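Regression test case RT-17, inverse folding.

Input:
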């Protein structure tokens, strides 16, 4: 009798445990990436925040204070793809927002794909440049295609990277009209989005009447002692018809558009109310506005955070109403970089200097001519990378490894160059931590033959296009990651986590396989 009783107790305990574990699987995942979100700004601006947005996330969520991307030249495309694949660019193939086609001698968007037409746009994109699976892809596979996956973002690269290859819909704000655009790569049409584009509420219909003014009294925007222009700014987006959408994407109004369309789809598609979990990926913006008078220390960036806090609060309320926060796993991740708008005082002598790529290429080519003959050995300098004339080198039967090494040894002595790393070093050479960092950002067939690491403080001067001159910065950005909802206990973790740890951790919480290139461990505090 005692054995039977013990067996029944054990059976009921296991059944209860299984039921409890099944109950903890979220019915809806809301993945929020915030482009250029800074943890230090969340702290500096918190006196302007309400109780329902960032404060709620920080107080009630699992907060990791520092996120790190272990590859160079971070931007919105490479970082978001890394978050959703759990892999670095060396595996997922998205090394940046743009890439250079050496054979055609032109720069193109990384997600460009002429095989698919645009929906509400003439631009032609697809998610196929992402070479590995994403969290959303694995969820689609696990559910037999039954899970709904939607992505909304200001830019195509963000929507396609977060939506993945099997999304029910991935949409971005079209650069000319402001419509929600997509690609015919995705076969399922979403009437709710198409209907929105035709209503008076569509951005394309109302952008000409939008003026950005401070949401609250500017005296509250007192986080920086360096703000010289504490004034009631006014930016009218109808004034520049050529750039009005591009400029609006640098403002908090794009976050409002993302939040509103997300709520419409959340309700219309009954997300989170079926047997299989659904997935909603949203991208917001928290960077600088290029027309701010004070650039990095502007009233505008503080207003952007104030308004974003409001949008986050409204979104959390909508999720709670629709499915309940216990049924939703929400994570917020920064892209881990910040585009500076640095202004150097006219009479200030900086520690760096000017690096002229064209001049360096000319000198390198002269050096290579002296060794290998009078030919144009260097094809292109692009984004701190050098591309060589591979066909010429092969035709002359020159040892390419030796050729790379000689070029690297010459360039490393140039003013402003910290180090030069060859593609052979990254693919086959002896490793050290610095080489591995660059290797993580290298993808064969897309990346160059040499990587130039320039010294911080040096300015890259493009003589043909001086508007693109940039000053090298290699400082860390305080970037948070927050997990919220789904019975997650509040906790603050003051350690650095890798961006590649997010995808396998979310996958584990969903009880699905991690994306196929995700090798990192899961975040133990999430379980």
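Golden output:
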């Amino acid at each position: 009798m005692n054995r039977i009783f013990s067996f029944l107790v054990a059976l009921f305990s296991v059944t209860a445990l299984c039921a409890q574990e099944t109950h903890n699987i979220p019915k809806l995942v809301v993945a929020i990436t915030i482009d250029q979100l800074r943890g230090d700004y969340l702290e500096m601006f918190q006196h302007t925040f309400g109780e329902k947005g960032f404060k709620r996330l920080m107080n009630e969520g699992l907060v990791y204070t520092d996120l790190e991307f272990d590859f160079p030249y971070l931007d919105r495309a490479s970082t978001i793809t890394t978050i959703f694949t759990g892999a670095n660019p060396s595996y997922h193939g998205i090394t940046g927002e743009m890439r250079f086609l050496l054979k055609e001698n032109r720069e193109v968007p990384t997600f460009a794909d002429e095989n698919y037409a645009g929906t509400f746009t003439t631009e032609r994109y697809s998610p196929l440049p992402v070479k590995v699976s994403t969290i959303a892809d694995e969820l689609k596979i696990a559910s037999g295609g039954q899970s709904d996956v939607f992505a909304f973002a200001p830019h195509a690269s963000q929507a396609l990277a977060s939506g993945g290859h099997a999304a029910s819909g991935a949409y971005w704000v079209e650069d000319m009209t402001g419509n929600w655009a997509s690609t015919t790569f995705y076969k399922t049409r979403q009437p709710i989005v198409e209907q929105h584009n035709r209503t008076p509420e569509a951005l394309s219909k109302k952008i000409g009447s939008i003026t950005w003014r401070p949401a609250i009294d500017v005296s509250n925007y007192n986080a920086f002692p360096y703000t010289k222009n504490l004034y009631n700014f006014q930016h009218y987006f109808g004034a520049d018809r050529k750039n009005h959408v591009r400029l609006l994407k640098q403002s908090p109004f794009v976050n409002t558009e993302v939040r509103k369309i997300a709520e419409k789809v959340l309700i219309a598609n009954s997300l989170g109310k079926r047997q299989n979990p659904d997935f909603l990926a949203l991208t917001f913006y928290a960077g600088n506005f290029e027309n701010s008078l004070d650039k990095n220390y502007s009233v505008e960036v503080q207003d952007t955070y104030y308004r974003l806090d409001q949008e986050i609060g409204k979104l959390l309320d909508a999720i709670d109403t629709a499915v309940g926060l216990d049924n939703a796993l929400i994570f917020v991740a920064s892209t881990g970089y910040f585009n500076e708008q640095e202004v150097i005082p006219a009479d200030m002598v900086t520690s760096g200097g000017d690096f002229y790529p064209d001049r360096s290429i000319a000198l390198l080519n002269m050096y290579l001519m002296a060794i290998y003959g009078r030919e144009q050995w260097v094809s292109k300098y692009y984004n701190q990378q050098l591309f060589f004339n591979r066909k010429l080198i092969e035709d002359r039967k020159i040892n390419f490894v030796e050729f790379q090494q000689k070029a690297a040894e010459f360039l490393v002595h140039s003013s402003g160059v910290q180090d030069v790393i060859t593609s052979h070093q990254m693919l086959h050479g002896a490793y050290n931590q610095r080489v591995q960092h660059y290797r993580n950002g290298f993808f064969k067939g897309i990346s160059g033959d040499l990587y130039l690491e320039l010294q911080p403080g040096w300015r890259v001067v493009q003589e043909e296009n001086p508007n693109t001159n940039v000053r090298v910065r290699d400082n860390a950005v305080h970037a948070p990651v927050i997990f919220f909802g789904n019975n997650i206990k509040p906790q603050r973790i003051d350690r650095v986590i890798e961006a590649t740890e997010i995808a396998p951790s979310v996958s584990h919480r969903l009880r699905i396989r991690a994306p196929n290139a995700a090798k990192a461990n899961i975040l133990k505090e999430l379980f």
